[in-house]
Amino acid sequence: MQAYAAKLIDLIELKAENIAKQWATDVMKHNRTPSYSSLQQDKVIERGVEFYRLFRKMSLADVPYEAAKNFSWKYAKECHREKIPLQEAIYALILLRRNLWLYAEFQGVFVTALELHQAVESLNRTILMYDYVSYQVIEKYQELINEEVDKKLGPVKMMMNNPVVGIKGIYKSGLMGILLLGACILTYYYHATLGTGVIFTHLFYIPIILASVWWGKKGILVAVFLAGLILASHALFLKAVPFLDDIIRALMFVVLGSVMGLLMDGIKRMEDLYKATIKI
Description:
Elements (H helix, E strand, L loop, with lengths): L2 H12 L1 H12 L13 H20 L3 H4 L1 H13 L4 H22 L1 H5 L2 H37 L1 H7 L5 H28 L11 H11 L4 H18 L6 H34 L3
Helix pairs in contact: 1-3, 2-3, 2-6, 5-8, 6-8, 10-11, 10-12, 11-12, 11-13, 12-13
């Protein structure tokens, strides 16, 4: 390690707590990092000290990029747990770098202790470290967001992720065909044989929901089919029974199928967005 580099690292490590306190005051009041204002100052200072002491670890490491990961991943996990938005977490890192150089400039350290080309080299080292940490924080933070989405939407994604085509697609189409056939049989039995409009149609929500989950907006066709089924059956077999109840049920089928289909398409678009931006 060159003498000027060692001197710079010694200085940062020696003054790490002072610089971190300066950074904590800045980041907790800055209008671009409002989430930090609710954190305990001691924890914020501790985070800053860890960042500044990272310089020595990276300087002694054979692979500096790998040496930065412990801090970067811990920082990302803490920010995610504290509900700090990614843009604020990254801007806090910018303030960490800025406060280091503001402190050094105020102390007049680099002017008196280092020549011009040494100061430039020191700046380059700082920028390189910041670049490594920023990239790793963004990578880890996005990974944590993706895991959170997977956890919250796990059951829904399991049902959605199977392809519509191929063996599993045929299985879904076959199952839906069986459910619709069963709906037709039930409708005929209750309307034509029993002559009643008893509320057996609650069972119809099962194929409507499944169709929406599997096929999104296209699943509305199942809801429309079932709505038409009960209305046509009522017109044929229950002429003496008031039509209003079945009209309401038919409308509810279509409304539910539409809402569910649009919702599932939205979830699918969100999932595709994460797949496009997050490479794990």
